[in-house]
Amino acid sequence: MNSIDTSNSNSLIGSSNLLIAAIAWGGMYGVSQTALQYLDPYSMTSIRYGCGALIFCLMLWLKEGRSAFRYDGQFLRLWLYGSCGFCGFSILLFHGLRHAPAEHGAVIASLMPLISALISWITQGKRPNGATLLCTLVAIAGVILVISRGDIANLLQLQTIKGDLMIIIGVTCWVIFSMGISQLPDWSSSRYTALSCSAGLITILCANTVASFIGVSVLPTLERITPVLFEIGYLILAAGVLAVSCWSNGVARMGALNSLLFMNMIPVAAFAIAALQGKAIDPMEIYGMALVITALVANNVLPRIQRADRVAPASSR
Question: Cα separation of 104 and 107, whole Å?
Fold first, then answer.
C-alpha cells in the first residue's frame, strides 16, 4: 500500500511540476512581446541570461558545491552548446516575436520532440519509425495552417512568415542544446545548464557588443527597463529558473516519455492567455494547433501501444 501511495504522490508532484513549467513557458511568448516594445532582442537576451547564469550557478553551488564548477576539458563543447541554446534560441526567438504572434511561437515550440527525432535521424542515422514520421508530417501541416491562417499564399510572402521562420530556427537551436546533455552522461542537468549558460554568455555579450556597434541594439537604460521590470522578472525567474527546475524535477519523477505529453500545454496556455487578453484568434490557428497537439499525443501514445502489443504475445506463451 505504501509503495502505491508513494507512486501516486510521485506522479502528482511530477505532473504538477511539468504543468507549472509548461504554463510558464506558454506565457513567455506574450510577455516577451511586451518587453520588446522597450528593449531589443540583444539587450533582452543579455539581461535574461546574465541574471540567469548567476542564479543557475548559485543553485549549482548549493546543490553540488565548488567542485561542480570544473569544466574538465569540456569548455569548448559547452560553449558551443551554450551559444546555440541560450544565444541562438533567445535572440532568434525575440527577433521572430517582433514579426509573428506569440501564439505561433508557442505552437512551434511544442514541436521540440519531433524536431529532436529528425535531428537524431540526420546526425546519428536513427531513422524514426513510420508512426513518428507520420506524426511529424501531421504536425508540420498543423504549423503551416497556423502560420498561413489557411491561406497558402501567405507562405509565399517572406514578410509574412519571416518571424515564424526565425522562431523555427531558434527552437531548433534549443533542441540541439537540450540534446547536448547526452554527450556528458556523468554530469547532472544542473551542472550542464549552469556551465553551458555561463560559457554561452560570452557569445551573448559579444553579439550584443557587435549589435550595439552597428546600431541595431541600444544599451538598456533605467528609463527602458523600468516599464518592463515585471516582464524581465518573468523571463528570468518564471520562464527561466522556475520552469527549468520544475521541468527537470518532473522528468525525473515521470520519465521523459510521459513528460513530453505536457509540451502540449505550451500552445494551449499561450492561446488561452491571448484569448483572455482579448486578442482575435483566427479559427485556422485553432485548427492548426489542434493538429499539432493531436500529432504530439499520437507520437507519445503509439509507441506504448506497439510495446504492449509486443509484450502481450510473449506473456501468453
Answer: 5
Please give the grid coordinates belonging to residue 238. 518564471
Among 13-22, 52-61, 178-187, 235-244, the range with the most confident prediction by mean pLDDT is 52-61
CB 300 within 8 A of CB 261: yes
* pLDDT at residue 158, rounded to an integer: 64
SS3 225: helix
Return d(Cα 100, Cα 166) in angstroms, integer: 9
Residue with cell 517582433: 98
pLDDT at residue 69 in the model: 95
**Does the structure show a pLDDT above 50 at 1?**
no
pTM of structure: 0.82
Closest by CA position to 96, among listed 147, 38, 150, 21 = 147
Per-residue pLDDT for 58 more than 60? yes
How many CB atoms sit inside 10 A of residue 304's CB? 11
43 to each of 57, 95, 207, 209, how far by Cα in Å? Answer: 21, 12, 10, 10
CA distance 68 to 56: 12
Largest Cα–Cα separation, the chain:
74
